[in-house]
Every structure is written in structure tokens, then in C-alpha cells.
Amino acid sequence: MGWWKENLPLITVIIAAVLLGLEMWFFFSQSSQQLVTWGNIAQEFSNAAETMAQAVGQSQNLNSGIVPVA
Fold it and tell me: What is the pTM of this model?
């Protein structure tokens, strides 16, 4: 009776991995209608990273551009 209690973390990880696999399979099996591919996802992350980098650069420019007016 106690074997599953001892292995509960492993069982939980296996169940989570199976559910994640099913979800990903379903998501990408629908991708022909939604045109969602790994390339599109990577492009979205790239756009977000570029936007964040630009925002950080602008904030640094604002901080470094403070000139005291006499």
C-alpha cells in the first residue's frame, strides 16, 4: 500500500509530463488552422526581447542624459 506514497513525487512528475505532452500534441495538431509553429513562437519571443532591450536602452539614455541646468 505504501509504495505509491514513497514514489509520489516521481508519479506526479510522470503524470505532469504526460499531460504536458498531450497538451503540446493537441496544440500543434491544431497549428495548421492557427498557423502556430515553433518559428512563430520563436519570433514572438524575439520581438518581445527586442522590445524589452529597446526599453532598457531608452531608460539608460534618459538616466545618462540628465544635465543640471545652472
Answer: 0.38
